[in-house]
Specification:
Elements: H1 45-52, H2 57-62, H3 69-75, E1 83-86, H4 96-107, E2 113-117, H5 122-131, E3 137-141, H6 148-155, E4 163-167, H7 173-182, E5 188-192, H8 205-213, E6 219-221, H9 229-238, E7 244-246, H10 257-266, E8 269-271, H11 283-286, H12 309-313, H13 321-327, H14 343-350, H15 355-360, H16 367-373, E9 381-384, H17 397-408, E10 414-418, H18 423-432, E11 438-442, H19 449-456, E12 464-468, H20 474-483, E13 489-493, H21 503-506, H22 508-516, E14 522-524, H23 532-541, E15 547-549, H24 560-569, E16 572-574, H25 589-593
Parallel strand pairs: 1-2, 2-3, 3-4, 4-5, 5-6, 6-7, 7-8, 9-10, 10-11, 11-12, 12-13, 13-14, 14-15, 15-16
Length: about 625
């Protein structure tokens, strides 16, 4: 049935929206089969109510109830106001607070759900609470005029509340604790903050308040919260029914090792700190925030000089970026000695840098920072990301990487290598890091099959392997699968070669995966040459597969039974023709090297910058632990 309303807009003064309504707008006539017009006013009230409940409360009060007398009667029924949705585009010239009070009055105490966006006061919130003791769901988004005190005062009047959202509004940890104690049936909490938009610090206050007072939580969203692993563990200890957990932009949380395992076992739906915010209802509200990479750009000193503690303490406004960014947080008359920060806080800050920045910059700031940088806990993850211009670096990244591995003292869990590396380096890492869980090799062309196989056999606990734009045969993949029985995530991204098409060789890698990696959950094969045969083998051999990325796999034809099987089996499927705009490397390697340069002419040299870029015998020893 096609219902068409002629849009009727009115500009109402803030205090006069309940004045007599203007002449109701007409209805567009719709013809029945017998040629007569349908009289929409004669629809049964139940049908009219069912239709109108699809509108927001603002649309009902501003438009629908003005159509005709019968619709006006339906709109006054308290049943229509069990849920009040006051979401709005922020620029409406209406008195939304007065409109909301009127909607609450119409509910006659039967209000069960209410959503308020962009407006509201403490007075309004308590008006709602005083008249809606049966309220089950309350959502407040970007209501900047509502204070912590007013929100707490209202929430203690809502003992039946099950679903609470407070997004970009004021709510302290103490108030959060009062809420948990006053609302014992609370099952869903969404507490979304602005995250690290200025300076990162750690606070488990919210997390501990949740853990202490909300044992029945099943769904928890903490976007942009400052909790740490300690706070997250407290929540997991006390919220035993938790099934859905969203910690996106919680950049103090590191989901690795036992904590990662615990979350995977306990939580059905987990959104990790660096997961995409696509689909987040307030995506526009957080677009102004710094990106994860930008947050830490100023946390290391640009100078190569070695500063003493006293020099560090007396940094002026002319200092390089590290001192400048911190001085903005201090009162001019009370300079802060950053060298005297607790080691735990220094460590928390420096862990946001990659390993090259720590070795090249941060450890040279002062002796106290140097001591923190030597702590093995700083080297659980080694990130050797760089811009790829190895010839202009002024240091040997391989020697630097070996030194970082030594500092980990066997505790290394994750390592990322970009643009460099050799078989010898990979085996150096494997020999000293038997507990390694994650290995990422991005554009590490000199690493050969033989060296990779030798190293991966020493890494039985590996769970995540990435080889992007590097040499890797099907046989090497099979050895990796057999040697690493816990492997759950594989990214094998290749240089798309449209000219290569050998049916026998196309599926070698796919068959190696299928035969040896039954525990895979996440598989990315961007640019792979596999065919439908190889994909079918993977689906047969990897029964737990949930995420599959086949972008630029142009030999795969997802149609018929194969498409149906993928749709039924795979929770997240990226198809061959989908855009690679969100791919972390965001380009086709062919665009960089040209179609005739997939492989270097001198394969024996292996290294594109030649063997003599660095004179290793004359390398500075400033990475040694005797530097100071």
């Amino acid at each position: 049935m096609d219902l068409r309303l002629i849009d009727h807009q009115t500009n109402m003064a803030s205090s006069s929206y309940l004045r007599p309504f203007p002449t109701p707008p007409s209805l567009t006539p719709v013809m029945k089969e017998d040629g007569k017009c349908i009289n929409w006013e004669e629809l049964p009230s139940e049908i009219t109510s069912s239709i109108l409940r699809r509108l927001s409360s603002i649309d009902i009060l501003e438009n629908a109830q003005k159509v005709c007398t019968s619709w006006r009667g339906v709109c006054k029924d308290p049943v229509m106001w069990r849920k009040i949705d006051m979401r709005n585009p922020r620029n409406l010239v209406l008195n939304l607070e007065m409109m909301c009070r009127h909607a609450v009055d119409r509910s006659q105490g039967g209000l069960a759900e209410i959503d308020i966006w962009h407006f509201g006061t403490d007075s309004l919130l308590n008006y709602i609470a005083d008249r809606s003791s049966n309220l089950r769901s309350l959502r407040l988004a970007m209501c900047s005029s509502i204070t912590d005190v007013g929100l707490t005062e209202a929430l203690v009047k809502l003992p039946l509340l099950e679903d609470l959202e407070v997004s970009y509004c004021s709510l302290s940890a103490e108030s959060l604790k009062v809420v948990g104690q006053s609302c014992p049936n609370l099952k869903t909490l969404k507490l979304n903050r602005e995250g690290f938009n200025r300076f990162p610090y750690e606070s488990d206050d919210d997390a501990l308040a949740i853990a202490e007072t909300m044992p029945r939580l099943g769904h928890l969203q903490l976007f942009g919260n400052k909790l740490t692993e300690g706070g997250l563990n407290a929540i997991l200890d006390n919220c035993l029914d938790l099934e859905h957990l969203d910690v996106r932009r919680c950049l103090n949380v590191y989901l690795f090792g036992d904590l990662k395992k615990r979350c995977s076992e306990r939580v059905k739906v987990l959104r990790r700190p660096l997961d995409s915010i696509r689909g987040y209802p307030y995506e526009e509200a957080v677009n102004h925030m710094d990106t994860y990479e930008d947050l830490y750009a100023d946390y290391y000193h640009e100078s190569d000089s070695d500063y003493s503690d006293s020099e560090m303490a007396s940094s002026s406004s002319n200092s390089p970026p590290l001192s400048t960014s911190m001085s903005q947080l201090m009162k001019p008359e009370q300079p802060r000695n950053w060298a005297e920060l607790p080691p735990e806080l220094i460590s928390s800050i420096l862990l946001r840098l990659n390993s090259i920045q720590i070795l090249e910059k941060a450890q040279k700031v002062c002796r106290s920072w140097r001591r923190v940088c030597k702590d093995p806990s700083m080297w659980r993850k080694i990130d050797m990301d760089n811009d790829g211009d190895l010839g202009s670096m002024g240091y040997d990244p391989e020697i630097m990487c070996r030194h970082a591995v030594d500092r980990s003292q066997g505790g290394l869990l994750e390592i990322d290598l970009w643009y460099f590396g050799t078989d010898e380096l990979l085996n150096y890492i494997a020999d000293r890091s038997s507990n390694l869980k994650s290995l990422r090799l991005i554009m590490c062309y000199p690493i050969a099959d033989e060296g990779f196989v030798e190293a991966v056999r020493k890494l039985p606990l590996l769970e995540y392997l990435e080889v992007t734009y590097g040499a890797m045969s099907g046989e090497a993949l099979k050895v990796a699968g057999q040697s690493c029985p816990n492997l759950k995530k594989l990214r094998l991204n290749s240089e798309t070669n449209h000219q290569f098409n050998d049916e026998e060789l196309n599926d070698k890698k796919a068959l190696g995966i299928a035969e040896s990696m039954p525990e895979l959950r996440h598989l990315q094969l961007v640019g792979n040459t596999l065919t439908n045969r190889g994909l079918t083998a993977i689906l047969d051999g990897c029964p737990h597969l949930e995420h599959l990325d086949l972008r630029k796999c142009f030999n795969v034809r997802l149609e018929g039974d194969l498409e149906k099987r993928c749709s039924e089996r795979i929770r997240e499927l990226r198809r061959p023709d989908e855009s690679t705009a969100d791919h972390p490397y965001g380009f086709n390697i062919e665009d960089l090297l040209g179609p005739n340069n997939y492989y270097w002419d001198d394969l024996s040299a292996g290294y594109p910058y030649g063997a003599n870029v660095y004179d290793l015998s004359d390398c500075s020893d400033y990475y040694s632990d005797e530097f100071y």
